[in-house]
Amino acid sequence: MADFILVTHWTGGDVYPFIRFGKLLTEEGHQVTILTHCVYEEKAKAAGLRFLPVDTAEEYKDLNRDLSMLTDPIGRKDEYLRFHSLYHGKERLLREVGLIEKVLTPESIIIARHRSSISGLLAAEKHHLRYASMILAPNYFSHMELHDELFGEAFCVDINAAREVLGLPPITDWKDWTYSPKTILCGWPDWYSGRDETWADSAVPIGYIPDPDIKDNYEFGETIGSFLKEAERKNVKTAIVTGGSSRMVSKDFYSTAIRSCILAGVSTIAVTPYDEFIPEDLPDTVLCVHSAPIRDIMKKVDIVVHHGGMGTISEAIDAAIPQIILPHLTDGPDNADRLAALGIASKFPPKMWDPEKIAESIRRWLFEEDRSICIRYQNMNQDTYAAKPWKDVLSHLVPYELPEQREKRAAVRKDETSSRKEEVLKKQVSREMLLKLMKKKQESKEN
Fold it and tell me: CA-to-CA distance for 367 and 206, rounded, in angstroms?
């Protein structure tokens, strides 16, 4: 049994995959502790994980409000840097490393979210623990060069301030440092995104992270259950609309998506914690809820309209339903391009947010398109889940150290090997000389 420590930050799309991964590890007999935002405590403990909050309820409220600082890193560079300083600066990093140190052992394995959860990387380096980063969407690789150019120097200042306190040497290149772990787990299958020149050399696709607790016959509550049964009774197609768990969504996303579904003539469940996103005076064919078992609902509905988040994508593929994507932030546009190319989604960037056209696409998927390709990718996903490629990868993790430290240690080993070879050679020469001398003495006696 191994002791795993998982570290992740930000939205549900960044946290739930880690909770599911932790659940998979516990089912293999491992002990798992997760460090993340306080609001995920109940979910984490329900999955059988030990939980350490990285913030208080008030601090998380501030974070959720400030996530909007990340929406335009080029146009609002100062806000982006302020967010990094507030939530990934010296004091936060040191506090989180301290939390990790409360639960780690010399045998602990740390897995931390790439880029945003670098406290895990710092703790692994300080204590020479086995380590892997996890990256949840391919576009994070493609954006690294730009982020390094715009923010790398400033990021290094904050990180080095923490490194000095921890007794670690300074780093000079932010991108190289984040790419330095010997293993970077990629939370998608290789058929979703192939390796390109932006990827770290150590990147390894392990597939989407499945939910071990998914039930075949989920019992919905009265509100959602009755709504789905009524649609079934009327023989009406159904849709689910979701823009993720955070406020990082366009103010027009829900109104556009819901209006499109109404025009398409489908009964719609819209899920968002934020009432301000929901338009007023909706017909009774639209049910709005603050939270819902989205993965289970997808097994019952005919189509999903969403923002392009990786969690929603994997759930839709598992349910073998077509996807209408209205991408506008973070990894959404890149994900939408990939799914459209695979033939299992239609994409509508903000300039194309015309409810009439989106409704037409919904109707086409529901009544005209051959949806067998959705089943094909569902089967491919299930095959990846069954293979558990992450198990072999985790069995080969090594303690983290900076590349220059690895190179120094390799040079020392090389010198030691050379010295041992020289010593062996000297002994061989000495032995041969002794044998020759003994032979000469023997020959002299015989003469």
Answer: 34
Residues facing 134 on adjacent strands = 113, 185
For the stretch 247-297, pLDDT in tens is 888 999 999 999 999 999 999 999 999 999 999 999 999 999 999 999 999
Q: Using one digit for the tens of pLDDT, what is the confidence trace for 155-180? A: 999 999 999 999 999 999 999 999 99
Judge whether 68 lies within some domain: yes
Cβ neighbours of residue 195 under 8 Å, at least 6 residues apart? 203
Distances (CA, A) of 404 to 140, 156, 410: 25, 17, 10
Q: Which residue has the tokens 């995959």?
A: 17
Mapped to the 3 state alphabet, what secondary structure does 79-131 carry? HHHHHHHHHHCHHHHHHHHHHHHHHCCCCCEEEEECCCCHHHHHHHHHHCCEE
Q: Which two tokens stand for residue 407?
A: 């190179």
What residues make up the domain containing 323? 222-369
Q: How far apart are CA 380 and CA 98, in angstroms?
A: 41
Structure tokens that stand for 48 in this block: 């059988």
Q: Do 35 and 164 sit in the same domain of this protein?
A: yes
Round to whole Å and give the CA distance between 65 and 87: 12
Q: Token pair of 428, please?
A: 């061989």
Total of domains in the chain: 2
